[in-house]
Design goal:
Chain lengths: 110, 119
């Protein structure tokens, strides 16, 4: 049982916009930054969004992040086949004094 | 370009201690923070522990009693020891670099190493 809650799966057709949610609590998302990671099969995770809504250089602007209260969302617009991957949210948790991850969402491009 | 590489045994017997080392190149372990994260086969990510350049540490409460993390600046490496392992500790173990204390931002990762706990 992960501290942050994500839907196990999401899907969309090419060109569509898909959002993935991440729900937490006041000790993590409610008081700290949210991060989003993409993981392709057999590879290490890669950061997509940092500090709620910032994109590292090289990440397409098709990916965007937002946060409201104790929840966050990752939006992927203009869906492409190469976006098919697992997506994880993460945040620092003040109560645990550590990093917590969501359980991951598998995005399928139909 | 910062690169991280995990090394250590791929097979550990139950009740023994898992030991992994992460070698950092292209950057110094004397700055930033360094972390271990694991991923059981087919499951999600689990943060294990952080160690900062000043050797202060944070641990996942569920693993704290079994985890030791250390940094060796002379070798530009940091290490993980997990004691009394069981099959539940079978996972791909990643080392990663964190940019700031109190955040979940890991910008460079190793490729990961699979550790299987089995007799």
């Amino acid at each position: 049982q992960s501290v942050l809650t994500q839907p196990p799966s999401a899907s969309g057709t090419p060109g569509q916009r898909v959002t993935i949610s991440c729900s937490g609590s006041s000790s993590n998302i409610g008081s700290n930054y949210v991060y989003w990671y993409l993981q392709l099969p057999g590879t290490a995770p890669k950061v997509l969004i940092y500090r709620n809504n910032q994109r590292p250089s090289g990440v397409p602007d098709r990916f965007s992040g937002s946060k409201s209260g104790t929840s966050a969302s990752l939006a992927v617009s203009g869906l492409r086949s190469e976006d098919e991957a697992d997506y994880y949210c993460a945040a620092w948790d003040d109560s645990l004094s550590g990093v917590v991850f969501g359980g991951g969402t598998k995005l399928t491009v139909l | 370009q910062v690169q991280l590489q995990e090394s250590g045994p791929g097979l550990v017997k139950p009740s023994e201690t898992l030991s992994l080392t992460c070698t950092v190149s292209g950057g110094s372990v004397s700055i930033y923070l360094w972390t271990w994260i694991r991923q059981p086969p087919g499951k999600g990510l689990e943060w294990i522990a952080n160690i900062y350049y000043n050797e202060s540490t944070n641990f996942n409460p569920s693993l704290k009693s079994r985890v030791t993390i250390s940094v060796d600046t002379s070798k530009n490496q940091f290490s993980l020891k997990l004691s009394s392992v069981t099959a539940a500790d079978t996972a791909v173990y990643y080392c990663a670099r964190g940019l700031s204390a109190g955040e979940g931002y890991f910008d460079y990762w190793g490729q990961g190493t699979l550790v299987t706990v089995s007799s």
